């Protein structure tokens, strides 16, 4: 009883304690001050505070009522002991409720407490060793700064009060080059997950605008201007009218359960199929991403030819693209010879223990060998592109439209690096024609052959001239 008296737990003291939980607006009302302009806004924490206050007031009243009844009725000692236990239990519940409320809504322990905040991480990289910038962002410092400037001045990327453009771009590159998750980027850059998500999509939107300008051919590509002609002199006598190479590639896709079936192709897992055209500088000049992995390459190709809104760079005159055996041999698109006993891919010519076994045999194989060597530019381009962007090998759980935009953004930055940076480790390695892309086998492109489609096209008799041109080139190669 002395302990309860020391608590002074009467109605007035309880009311004083409860008043400590009242909001600012309630105090203004008690003092007769008009409510502030923000009083109409509902604060979620205010709702919980009022609930806790109501519980606290109710418990105080119950305890006081039990106390008064105890004094009036003069109950025996055994009943007093039982009631004291109940009172103590109620008091513990009340105190625990107040403690939980305080820890959850009033005192929040900061999660991101590193001293490396407010651009410190990005500034240390930009003012540090060149290797550190390349390892973190796969870009040299000069390219990083130029890209930040162009995205700001031309494509609408703006800094915010708490984040610079350098930090926005750095987070985006960290996610794409290393496949870093949101929580890891939170720890590195000391920002909230919602902030990182918002700025990631802001940068993605700006780079999407850059992609529309940079993923396109030279205005005079049909005249062989720019890089739209073979660089190696051994190809020029035979493929002098070639302006690039066309091919497809597959990138892993993440879809909700039940929606992945159309995207599962021969690989056995969901992918998106991407049709691209590259020039002889290892730059993308056309890209159509987002196709289901089960879609056939030739089907996508035919759809591209009949979609004017895609602004596909069609060859004109005698110009053509090199394509592999999965596409039809039609005007403007030079395919290799096909057959069970006719080799095409470079790996097939490199097998064997002696030089004679690796060498091409006959006119068709000699044409195919040179055709494959020249078209290898697209394989090397894919190798550099996928090696730089780890997210292409293990796509995160974004919406499929966002995944498609990430693919295009990676291509845009790939072109930007190639055009802005004279010395890049990945490109220098791929300039060697013997370069073999170090690509995860899970994301290698499909090489499905659609012989029936080509035979149906060729049997129409409309491409006899184009087939004759291929025969003339093959004979010229064989004679030399």
From TrEMBL:
Keywords, comma-separated and alphabetical: Hydrolase, Metal-binding, Nuclease, Nucleus
Cofactor(s) the record lists: a divalent metal cation
Annotated Gene Ontology cellular component terms: nucleus
GO molecular function: hydrolase activity; metal ion binding; nuclease activity
Keyword Nucleus in annotation: yes
Superkingdom: Eukaryota
Compartment annotation: Nucleus
Domain DUF8040 stretches: 113-207
Entry keyword Ribonucleoprotein: no
Record-annotated DDE Tnp4 domain positions: 247-415
Primary location class: nucleus
InterPro entries on file: DUF8040 (IPR058353), HARBI1-like (IPR045249), HARBI1_dom (IPR027806)
Pfam families assigned to the protein according to its UniProt record, in alphabetical order: DDE_Tnp_4 (PF13359), DUF8040 (PF26138)
Family assignment from sequence similarity: Belongs to the HARBI1 family.
PANTHER family attached to this UniProt entry: NUCLEASE HARBI1, PTHR22930
Protein name: Uncharacterized protein LOC104245371
